[in-house]
Every structure is written in structure tokens, then in C-alpha cells.
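Anyone have C-alpha cells for NDR1/HIN1-like protein 26? Sequence:
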Amino acid sequence: MSQIDIKSPKHCANKRFHFNKKLFKIISTLIFSILSLTLLIWFLLHPSNPQFILQELDIYQLNFTSPHVLNSSLEITLEARNPNQKVGIYYDELQAYASYKRQQITLDTSIPPYYQGQQDSNLISASLVGNGLPVSPSLGYELGRDQASGKMILVVKLDGRIRWKVASWVSGRYRINVKCVTILPLTPFNPRGYMNSRQGTQCSTNL
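Reply: yep, here.
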């Protein structure tokens, strides 16, 4: 009579355990290799942060309808530069707004997403508006004091996400915060606006 080989449930369980362990090692090795390659590319290329310059800012309206309600209308032109020779940049979900005395004085304005090639530069124009925007009552006093001094400090901010592109590889999204501080001379209304700045203000960029 031939011998019948009957495997016990414990033997089958051990076999499945060794198979799952081997599969886990293969997947872990693959993931580790991909991450290592990504980090190697990152450190070799070492992409620099994009650079922003506030080329022009025009204010067409900045007044109060009550001590704590502000109306504002601004036009901005920003220049975005990619200083990298081998890395492109995708700009996603960009939002621009203006603030004065640490208070937001316009609503968020969306900037259409776009791609920027190596060492390219692009101009970004946007209208920043805030109608009936609630603000601190002290803001009117601060504005009056600045009018007496003949100048005011205004901040333009740009928040969003970027992705790096190297050949066909595209990174995940990284949050970007841009801050442009400009000093505006307070002048009466003129054909181009209430006050304007064309100083080419260098902005700070944080990732």
C-alpha cells in the first residue's frame, strides 16, 4: 500500500506564515529602494526655493464704511522665478491676499495653477478685493496715523502648494508661503490709483 501524506493544519499555517514573511520582505525592499532613489535624486539636485518679487502694487480703494468695516481694492503684479537648472516647478492651489497691521484686508484670490520650467520667470497679476470686510476698530486709527506720516506698510501674501519635477518624476506637494512687505507713499487719487509702489520688492519664501 502507498503511504498517504496528510499535512496537518499547523504545517499549512507555518507555510503560509513563511510565504507572507517573504512577500513582506520583497515589498519592504522595493519601497526602501524607491525612497532611497528619491532621496538620492533630491540631495544630488538640491532644488532651491522659488523666488518672488512684488513688481507693482496699486490701491484703488481703501476706506471705512464704519469704524470696523473696510472696503478695499488692490492690483498686484508678482514676478515668480525658478532658480534651478534641472528642476521644474508646478504651482498648485495658490491664494493671494493683502494684510495691514497684521489684519487681512482683502479676501483670498485664487491664482490659476501653472508649470514653470528650469530658470524660467513668470508674471502673476491679481485683483485683491475686500468689500464690507470686518476689521478691528483700531485699524482706522492706525490708517489715520499713517496718513499723517505720509506712508504705510502693506503686506502681500501668497500661500499654496508646489511640486518639483525632475525629468518624468514629480514629487509630492509641499506647502509654500510667500510674504512681500512694501512701503507705500500715501498720495491723493491719481489716474492709476490711490497709491502705488513700483520698487521691485524682494519677497521671502518659506517651504
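The chain has two domains: 7-46, 51-206.
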